[in-house]
Amino acid sequence: MTPCPLDILANVFGFPRFREQQEEIIQHVLGGGDAVVLMPTGGGKSLCYQIPALVRPGVGIVISPLIALMKDQVGALIEAGVRATYINSSLPAATARQLEGEMVAGEYDLVYVAPERLMTPRFLDLLGQTRLALFAIDEAHCVSQWGH
Asked: Which CATH number covers residue 88?
């Protein structure tokens, strides 16, 4: 049985109801749609990709340019009982390889990845072996910087 977004919101994240446009955005993403979500800091943008990643089969890949933010978000997700990790340059190579293998094996619901890792041929190959729930770009205002 597919979990209900509202149940995940309450049981995993501890919120009784969605804010503003969150439910509409989540339903749109669950239906296969793309979304650009613009909300103030603390407005609940992350839930707009985290909840669909928990509802859909596979792993949600979150591209995030900020190592500290990755660590904070993954820590909070793990604390909430979500199978989440991050893969970035702060990890020893052996640890990163282990996490990549676990990602391919479907052991995570959300994997936060630095843009420079995402663009490597090796990681792209790993994604080809992974059942993907969705891709999300966190801190999208940094996207133009990634190409420079």
From this structure: 3.40.50.300
Across all residues in the chain, what is the average pLDDT? 91
Q: Which residue has the tokens 């603390």?
A: 42
- Are residues 43 and 115 part of one domain? no
| Cβ-contact 88, 113 below 8 angstroms | yes
Q: Is the pTM of this model over 0.85?
A: yes
Residue partners of 56: CB distance under 8 A and separation at least 6: 30, 133, 134
Structural domains of the chain, count: 2
24 and 78 belong to one structural domain: no
Which residue type, as a one-letter code, is found at position 79? E
User: Among 25, 21, 24, 26, which Cα is nearest to 56's?
Assistant: 26
In the chain, DSSP finds a helix count (H) and a strand count (E) of 8, 4
